[in-house]
């Protein structure tokens, strides 16, 4: 994929193992995003309406699946937003290292897990005895990637460890506040779900809609070009 | 994947966040197309014919799955055609922006959803009480990507927002007519399914066959090369 | 992914719609190969051994799944071989066109379908009443990609339509014979399965082992370099 | 993906069929890694808690799935580590050949198989009668990729067959010891599982944690630059 530098005797010399291009990590992450987002539909099972004498039993079953459509739609949008934002922040990273790769893997773990709470919410949103559990579990499922994302961001930006040296401090700080705020809001959504499922899920939907807005433009320090 | 421009001090400077190369969007979309098209087979379950004393019970079960094969074949072809056409139109786009990325995500949502109505049609096409519902649901499943596709196309081409400036107006207009016509025909197929399942599905098959024809050649305005 | 040529005013000019680079088709096909080969395991379900008082009921269930392991192994190897051979022949193609793309899609359809006969064979190989049906169905599942592969090859090489002009005729002819022979052998395996399941599947295994041998080196005509 | 060399008459000349760039093998392997790692979640099924009069039956069901979460987490980490290490060693390979491709395919087979023992362990870890079988089967599932990995490594490095000629012998030897040791430890874990499930799985967890440490830096022989 990426061309390797060549030594004088015509053989590739790999770069040092600990400082690598971000391209491969992005490609792998893109693969996981694309698979997770497409797998979501497998959790919606074709309803059983055979053998019923009523002529429109399937229609009722299909419309009765609306909680599954709702959770499918919300999780699809969430993963799509994370995909876009993943590239957005990786463009700020000048390189990657072993720890960032592990933190990214941890983040992908929480993304890959999402189809399970999504299916759980779809199955139990209309079940009076279990809807609180299902909605809280789903909100936790959204909280987890927000936490691992923040972790990844804090690691990369602390002391400008892996980010471009000329990025504006205020710009980085702005994103840190945004990502920490996202964690706080999902934490609030988890707690709200325990009190009122509709309120808690409403916060999740609202935050997702906010994230559909275009991200902030990259801000680089000017005037530093001449040393 | 794509090489980044480098500043004078040797670090990558990412492009502005709102105007980006189409390469990454195409790669992600290709991933979703490839996964959705391959997942379709998971919706066809191995039939249960164990314990039957009849020697060819499995043969009957396998041939009895023909509605599933039919819907599998049609959806596979549809996704394959969208994959080819996706690249066809993205080659006309000189860049992408936040809104196009969102519209593309919306289009991919409707593609990823397709395995579900496909499985529903396969399960209920022979069920007299539910075949109308199943076929109409499937036709809606085909209508949705046609709509989101048209939306994406209209956004990109209105006022030549994102397309190559030297493309022939007549060529763009021709494609707009074609994509709007596709939406109209699928809308007709949905309505036809309510009246006669075979007619409605026949329109879907016919339109798919039409789309197997080679797409129109790109038409660029000539003589404008010298300003 | 692939860099586009640029016009004088700095905008991309896409190539003609009908003559395209093979890179994108190969990347998409690779995606389908990778997904189909990895999905195969989903067709092996965890056996039910709960509630049994016997201490090793799960061990018996797991070893009793050997027909599933066998069909999994054979299909995995088949898809892997097709993946390698797909690149092998696409390196001979100097370009692709609309018809080849459609034939390639048809070939991918038969590859994507493979998990279904694989699971059917795994489920019914030990079922005396249905093993003939299951094995024949599986052999047909292997015959189909061999047929679509031959079709793709014949289209590309007839009159050297899409292949490199300096390839040796004898080399192309050798491959045509090989691919046609493969179709003939799988056809024989289908018929043999009807008579004796073990013989028919034995032919499938034998042919797969043969295909593990390295492919023939590309042979180009020499001496034509100077015009 | 990779640019092909061009002959004087402007057509691509593919390289010899037996000596190829490693890029495509890595891309295909990445695809399989990404799919296998994301498919794991499909093996955790939404629990059935409907119709229960108890208000928190779902909560109990979800927490009762902890063996599934445990095996999911462990397998996810394992595949992630293999993904990172796969690139780590393929950067040392200057080229690939038919045999290495086959050995790599064999390795990918054992990776693709992993979701099945993972699901088996998740289902039976709390089943007193079957936990020994399930844990041993899972340990075998981890042993298999370790074995095929070692095979691939030994083939590529024996007589420096495919690795960079200036790599330090001590460095290659160090990795050989490490990979052989990994096989030995997993073999031990399999045997331990037969005696005590917790001990055997504990060894698996411990080894995984060790592999989270950064890999050794590449060591090239110096002073050989001038011939």
TrEMBL record, chains A, B, C, D:
Which Pfam families does the entry mention? TMEM175 (PF06736)
Indicate the principal place this protein occupies in or around the cell. Answer: membrane
InterPro entries this protein is in?
TMEM175-like
Per the record, membrane topology reads: Multi-pass membrane protein
Keywords assigned by UniProt?
Ion channel, Ion transport, Membrane, Potassium, Potassium channel, Potassium transport, Transmembrane, Transmembrane helix, Transport
Q: What is this protein called?
A: DUF1211 domain-containing protein
Q: Which reaction does it catalyse?
A: K(+)(in) = K(+)(out)
Q: Which organism is it from?
A: Acidiphilium iwatense
Transmembrane segments in this chain: where? 56-83, 103-124, 136-156, 176-194, 201-221
Keyword Transmembrane helix found? yes
Location of the protein in the cell: Membrane
- Family designation: Belongs to the TMEM175 family.
């Amino acid at each position: 994929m990426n061309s390797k530098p060549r030594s004088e005797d015509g053989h590739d010399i790999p770069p040092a193992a600990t400082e690598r291009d971000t391209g491969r990590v992005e490609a792998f992450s893109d693969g996981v995003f694309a698979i997770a987002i497409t797998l979501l539909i497998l959790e919606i099972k074709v309803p059983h309406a055979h053998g019923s004498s009523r002529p429109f039993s399937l229609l009722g079953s299909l419309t009765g699946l609306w909680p599954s459509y709702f959770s499918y739609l919300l999780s699809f949008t969430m993963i799509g937003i994370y995909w876009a934002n993943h590239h957005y922040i990786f463009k700020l990273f000048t390189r990657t290292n072993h720890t960032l790769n592990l933190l990214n893997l941890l983040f992908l773990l929480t993304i890959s897990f999402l189809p399970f709470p999504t299916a759980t919410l779809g199955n139990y949103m209309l079940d009076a005895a279990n809807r609180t559990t299902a909605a809280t579990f789903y909100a936790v499922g959204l909280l987890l990637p927000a936490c691992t994302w923040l972790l990844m961001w804090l690691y990369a930006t602390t002391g400008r460890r892996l980010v471009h040296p000329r990025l504006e401090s205020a710009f980085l700080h702005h994103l840190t506040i945004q990502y920490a705020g996202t964690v706080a809001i999902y934490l609030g959504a988890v707690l709200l779900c325990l009190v009122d499922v509709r309120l808690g899920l409403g916060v999740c939907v609202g935050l997702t809609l906010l994230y559909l807005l275009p991200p902030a433009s990259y801000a680089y320090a000017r005037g530093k070009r001449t040393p």
